[in-house]
Amino acid sequence: MSETRNLPEEYPRLVRPVAGRVVAGVAQGAAAQLRLDPVVLRLAFVLLTVVDGLGFVAYAALWMFTPKEQVPKEQVKGPQPGRDWGQLAAYGVLWLALAAFAWMTGASSGGFGTWPIAVGGIGALILWQQADPGRRQRWMTGAVKQVSTTWVRTGIGALLVVVGAIGFLAASGELAKARTGLVFTAVVVGGMLMIAAPWLASLVKELQRERTERIRQEERAEVAAHVHDSVLHTLTLIQRNAADPREVTRLARSQERELRNWLYQPKQDADATLAAAVRRVAAEEEDAHGVPIEVVCVGDCELTEGLVALLHAARQAMVNAAKYSESPVISVYAEVESDEVTVFVRDRGKGFVLDDVPEDRMGIRQSIIGRMERHGGSARVRTEPGDGTEVMLTMKRS
Amino acid sequence: MKTVRVLIVDDHRLFRSGVRAELGPSIEVIGEAEDVDTAVRAISELEPDVVLLDVHMPGGGGQEVLKRVLGAGSQVRFLALSVSDAAEDVIGVIRGGARGYVTKTINGTELTDAIVRVSEGDAVFSPRLAGFVLDAFASTEAPPIDPELDSLTQREREVLRLIARGYAYKEIAKELFISVKTVETHVSSVLRKLQLSNRHELSRWATARRLV
Question: Which of A296, A372, B141, B150 has the most C-beta neighbours closer than 10 Å?
Answer without folding.
Answer: A296
